[in-house]
Amino acid sequence: MTQVHNIFGRCITSFLALSGDVPLAIERLVNNAVIGLMDSDMIIEDTFAPMAELQEPRVAQPLESFEQTVFIDQLTDKVIIDGFGPHFHQIIGLFGSIMLDLCATDEQRQLVDNWLGQGHFGNFMMTDAGGPTLAQWQSTLTTAEAGQISLNVDKKWVIEGQNVGFSMVVCQQKGRPFPTTVLLSPQKSKALQQKACGGSFLDGNLQLGDVKGEVLINKSDFLSKGGLASVNRFLTLVRPRFVKSLMHHLLWLQDQKRLTLDHDDLSVIDFIINTANWCTAQDKFSIHSVDRVLALKFTSNELLQSLVVKGAVNEINDQRDLLGFTKMEGSSYRCLFEIYSKFKRGRR
Prior knowledge:
By secondary structure, the protein is of the alpha+beta class. It contains 12 helices and 9 strands. The strands form 2 sheets. Strands 2, 3, 4, 5, 6, 7 and 8 form a 7-stranded mixed sheet that branches. It has a two-stranded antiparallel sheet with strand order 1-9. A hairpin with a 5-residue loop joins strand 3 and strand 4. The radius of gyration is 21 Å and the shape is globular.
């Protein structure tokens, strides 16, 4: 008998299976999660027909390599010894460096190198106070006098947003269906209102903050090199490394007697780490590249949540950390929705 969770769970498990056989513990974890995340559109409008088998991509392009990944992988391996906290900012900073290599001009890259040399931290501002969809965003661009452009910033939950160095602000630009990213100098960034938001994470190593204000910018401040394709390549490179860091953090928590892992938990962690390694070993970018790392992040999210739900995490601050990481770099709903939307288009 066909079960609903087997139909929709395949949105995730079919991509996980690209790296090897999916353990039963993973299938149970994914299928149970998908039932809870199905929205009204899926329940009412879907045909509930089996999902199509994945096809080999017709086109695959070389995926760029970056020297930063060597250092990221070294730091990721240190997380299993020290926990994520001491290495979080350096790993995230190296992620930002890759993004700039993909999206910034040579002149912008030189500016960033100068700011880093002066000791400024780079803040990436994505989550908008207006809501989750681009049309709701309050961080917007409008035309000002003398050819300048006014950028209204209303961002929340920015990493170290209470103490901004230079910043990369993702915003809405009228008439464009995709977000636009603007590079702000330390001087312009400091002019924005900044305040800490909520308690710290990772044993005091990570603080989030809200950032608001308005600044004038020029067209030269836009990070426009590469477009949306560069963003997808960036996520393909960094998401598996982020997930692997989370799995190493779990093993560190276990070593510190702050987390109890059973056999199934360990098998799921082992599979996720192996799949993350498989993803980072790929040197081609295709239509499947983004979806397989979304599926990986989905599985990581659901493992972290399941550990909190069943009481395996001893301390409340660790529980909060793990739940927080189920939202960072893609929530389960967002991961499922993006993958499912492509399957749905393929079934028409």
